[in-house]
Amino acid sequence: MALVVQKYGGTSVANAERIRAVAQRVVARKKAGDRLVVVLSARAGETDRLIQMGREIAPNPDPREMDVLLSTGEQVTIALFSMAVKDMGCNAVSMTGYQAGIITNRSYGQARIHWIETLPVMDQIQEDKIVVVAGFQGYDDEGNITTLGRGGSDTTAVALAAALGADMCEIYTDVEGVFTTDPNVYAKARKLEKVSYEEMLEMASMGAKVLHLRSVEFGMKYNVPIMVLSSFIDAPGTLVTKEDEEMEKVVVSGITYNKNEARITLTNVPDQPGMAARLFKAVSDAKVNIDLIVQGSGSIPGRANISFTVPRPDYEKTKAVAQRVAEEIDAGVVHSNPAIAKISVIGVGMRSHTGVASRMFDALAAENINIKMIATSEIKISCIIDEKYTELAVRVLHDTFELDKPPHERIKIRQEH
Amino acid sequence: MALVVQKYGGTSVANAERIRAVAQRVVARKKAGDRLVVVLSARAGETDRLIQMGREIAPNPDPREMDVLLSTGEQVTIALFSMAVKDMGCNAVSMTGYQAGIITNRSYGQARIHWIETLPVMDQIQEDKIVVVAGFQGYDDEGNITTLGRGGSDTTAVALAAALGADMCEIYTDVEGVFTTDPNVYAKARKLEKVSYEEMLEMASMGAKVLHLRSVEFGMKYNVPIMVLSSFIDAPGTLVTKEDEEMEKVVVSGITYNKNEARITLTNVPDQPGMAARLFKAVSDAKVNIDLIVQGSGSIPGRANISFTVPRPDYEKTKAVAQRVAEEIDAGVVHSNPAIAKISVIGVGMRSHTGVASRMFDALAAENINIKMIATSEIKISCIIDEKYTELAVRVLHDTFELDKPPHERIKIRQEH
């Protein structure tokens, strides 16, 4: 009799019909013998509706009150869902973040779970009920309602699974699992059977929207097996779990892309200590997060070009900052380009295999795709390219690493130790 | 520096514009020096919307989950209202029933307040905040969310005022106060300056929709002065308070009517012990509440006619029960009439004045309005008449007792001790 935490997202509970459909699946699973905790999001569109409602009242709604407002979205869903389950003759009980003992810090709108008082949920499980918990919300040590930020219901589910010592955390979503790349970009994308926490983290931070970043961090920290599945199709999903030998043999697990960045280059920066620091302090003061940084030689001897990328919504603001700093430090012209994309090749196998980078660069070069910046980590290589080549690059790299084939059928990459 | 509990109903907070308007009044009052606790209802129509949503999921939604669902209505309002107040530069904090320490029994949908843990609200008052409390909701001793039933926000406000030892509980509504009768029926209706708890109770139970019945009971029990005022018009309201000498001099305070009853008569019931008991047990088993009962002689000697009234939605059901019982006990035909009305004359002064009943009957008779049943209490006389005469009867009685004039200008009714 396994203890399973399941999470269903907003599209899975968007209306009465879907709520009843999910309730039916859950009831069947309960009857098959598992003990279940179900974490739910607000119905699709509800959170946006509530935010809009708040903004009609005040242009900058108070963050504490915004969380009081937003948390009603999940409360509605857990009530409706529990009604549906009970109507099917199965016992259930809804629990808000408060009732489920989910204690967070006080960062309204982006709170972090501190700990979970598991007794209330455990009591209800002991009474053989399906426990239906509101995702996305918690409360601080003074009893204020908090929310975890967009996608926070994933985190609620994984954290609850960790705290309850659940055998599995199942995340039901509108995709069938984690794919080698976005199937909308390349139909040859293959669903992964397994992926490591670290790969999933890289994919999540690269813009793959399957799992909320923090939920993967939680899973990794507490070693919770996470299964990503479709709420609509009855098919095996992707298991996110700790790295094993089998995974290490797979050199490349997936290709991701991110079109939400912009690039800025300061040319001919005087090559003196503190110049880069001055630039990045100014950008940071403007509350802009920098992703990649590359420094190279400038066209004038003794001077350097510094390129960096920022989120695209911060592009204009950052350009102005860069322009100001360039004048102050007597650098050359500022180049900028909002139409770039970041293509990344991810795989834990890269730790023990080389040759991945050169195959990536070769494949892009063969298509005349110019690489503007490169960044690497232990399990990832990212290239900045012109945005218009994004889909082409994804397809080429997918083919190059034969990701459409099962791992054991792929041609071995030269291994160097 | 008075401590005042204010309550605003659903129409007062129906949309962003009205929420801001109420917030403005509250902020002005705070700046004038009072300490304020504001109790809010769900926005007009919201509770019905949520009930509808629940019924789409299950024909008989689980009561516990219905309360989880319904309580979101007030939570949305307190969040929006607190945002508005803070946006106007005044400090405020919203509190759900749980956060405000409102502890009830577990009668979901019609819970009764057991006690209020005042410390959380007092703490916020000490910090000089406007405390914005969700009406209509509480929680039981196991932390389940409960609701108090329709109109329950009035009860929240009066109970909070009692628990906090507030100087006044102000109920803002869409009428200007308590009137001598329904101003929609008779334009000569006069706003009462003061009315006693007992009169208000009779008026509330007779269908006057100004105050929730239980809130008046609370006010009477804990002697909380309740002021009923308009949210939209800046005018003095009606003070509901304990009976004083001045009130006793006023013989009749108001005329109420109730069109929501139906009458059933069993004719020629055998005049043997247990016949009436058998009838009323059968009606009670059908979960129908009986209001008035009158027994008189039947057309056959030794037999009796028994008439009683029930809520109109229960009319058909009760008629069938009565028909069955009539056959079982060998009574005569069953007469029934769903088109009746109950007209009541209310006043604490009746305790020390007689002649009210005869003036009432005379006035109705003068208009050829036939009285079908009569019931009296210490401070009330009710007559059942044909529904079509309702408005005429209200106007005639209002004129008879000169309720359009201030009390001291009315002609004295003969006083008998």
* DSSP strand content of chain A: 15-25%
Q: Main beta sheet of chain A, described?
A: 8 strands, mixed
How many strand units of chain A?
20
| Number of helices in the DSSP assignment of chain A | 12
Helix content of chain A: 25-40%
Strand order of the largest sheet of chain A: 3-6-2-1-9-11-12-10
Radius of gyration of chain A: 24 Å
Identify low-pLDDT runs of chain A.
none
Assign an overall shape of chain A. Answer: globular
Ends apart, CA distance between termini of chain A: 45 Å
What is the quaternary state of this protein? homodimer
Supply the helix-strand structural class of chain A: alpha/beta
Largest interface: A-B, 38 and 38 residues
Rounded mean pLDDT of chain A is 92
Structure summary:
In chain A, 35% of the residues lie in helices and 25% in strands. With 417 residues, chain A is of the alpha/beta class.
Explain what you see:
- The structure is a homodimer of 417-residue chains.
- With 417 residues, the first copy, chain A, is of the alpha/beta class.
- Chain A has twelve helices and 20 strands.
- Chain A has an eight-stranded mixed β-sheet, sandwiched between helices. Chain A has a four-stranded antiparallel β-sheet with strand order 13-18-20-19, with helices on both faces. In chain A, strands 15-16-14-17 form a four-stranded antiparallel β-sheet, with helices on one face.
- In chain A, a hairpin with a 5-residue loop joins β15 and β16.
- The longest helix of chain A is centred in the N-terminal third of the chain and has 25 residues.
- The mean pLDDT of chain A is 92.
- Chains A and B meet through α1, α2 and α3 of A and α1, α2 and α3 of B.
